[in-house]
Design goal:
Blueprint (H helix, E strand, L loop, with lengths): L1 E4 L4 E5 L2 H15 L1 H8 L15 H10 L5 H6 L6 E4 L10 H4 L3 E5 L2 E4 L5 H7 L2 E2 L2 H13 L4 E4 L5 E6 L7 E7 L2 E8 L2 H10 L2 E4 L2 H13 L1
Antiparallel strand pairs: 1-2, 2-10, 3-5, 3-6, 4-5, 7-8, 7-11, 8-9, 9-10
Length: 222
C-alpha cells in the first residue's frame, strides 16, 4: 500500500510480509551498538566514534516549532520566499542585524526575511522559528550535519531512524516505528531532506543514537 508524501514528493511504503522480515533483520543488525555507531558515525583518527555534536540549541528551536504559526502570519507571508523567520514573543529590530550577522527585512511585525540562513544558536538568541521552506530545510541540514539519526514524534508513540537505505544504493531512508515494530519507510536523496520530512511530520524530539538503537532492539525483538 502506497501513501503519497506531498511535502517531499516521495512514496512512503507500508511494510508487511517478507519485506517486514527483511527490514527487521537488517535494522536489528544496524541497531546493535557497534554496528549502529560504525555505520552512522565512522571512527575519528584517534579510533573513537565521531561526536553527534551539541544539540541543545537545536532542541530549543524544535521546542518552539511545536507551536502553530498564527493564520494571520501565514496569510501575511503567503508567496514570500527566502530565509523567513517568526519571532512569536517580540518584534525583531533592525539593530539586531549586527548580532545576527546578516541583513534582515521585516515582512510583518514579528516576521522577517534574512539574507543568510540563521543557525540555531542565533535563533535561540532571538527566540525565532524557521517558517519558510528555505529556512526549514537549512535547519534540517544543521540537524543532519550535527549527526542526528533519530527523532521522536510529539505524540510520544512513534519514533524514527535515519540511515542508509536498505532498498536503494546511495539513498537515505527513514524507517518509522511504533511499539509494534517498523511500520513505514521513505526514501530521500540526502539526510537534510529526510530530517525535513520528520520535522514536517511532527517529529520534534532528538533521540541520542544510543537511545535509537535501544528502542529499535526493544520493538523488533519484543
Amino acid at each position: 500500500m502506497l501513501f503519497k508524501n506531498l511535502i517531499n514528493n516521495t512514496f512512503v511504503v507500508a511494510i508487511d510480509g517478507l519485506e517486514q522480515d527483511y527490514l527487521r533483520d537488517k535494522n536489528y543488525r544496524i541497531a546493535r551498538d557497534s554496528d549502529f555507531k560504525e555505520l552512522e558515525h565512522p571512527r575519528d583518527a584517534d579510533g573513537k566514534f565521531a561526536s553527534s555534536g551539541n544539540t541543545k540549541n537545536q532542541e530549543g528551536t524544535l521546542e518552539r516549532m511545536k507551536k502553530e504559526v498564527p493564520e494571520s502570519v501565514e496569510n501575511e507571508i503567503f508567496g514570500e520566499t527566502g530565509y523567513i523567520y517568526y519571532t512569536p514573543h517580540r518584534p525583531i529590530e533592525n539593530s539586531q542585524e549586527k548580532m545576527l550577522g546578516t541583513k534582515i527585512k521585516p515582512l510583518h511585525e514579528r516576521v522577517f526575511v534574512s539574507d543568510k540562513p540563521l543557525s540555531s544558536d542565533k535563533l535561540n538568541d532571538i527566540e525565532a522559528i524557521p517558517i519558510s521552506q528555505e529556512s526549514k530545510h537549512q535547519f534540517a541540514k544543521e540537524l543532519a550535519d550535527s549527526g542526528v539519526v533519530g527523532m521522536m514524534n510529539k505524540d510520544g508513540k512513534r519514533f524514527s531512524f535515519v540511515h542508509e537505505s536498505t532498498k536503494h544504493d546511495g539513498k537515505i531512508q527513514i524507517t518509522y516505528y511504533d511499539k509494534s515494530g517498523a511500520i513505514l519507510d521513505s526514501q530521500h536523496n540526502d539526510r537534510a531532506s529526510a530530517i525535513e520530512e520528520l520535522i514536517e511530520g511532527g517529529f520534534m524530539k532528538i533521540l541520542p543514537e544510543e537511545k535509537v538503537g535501544s528502542l529499535i532492539q526493544k520493538v523488533m525483538v519484543g
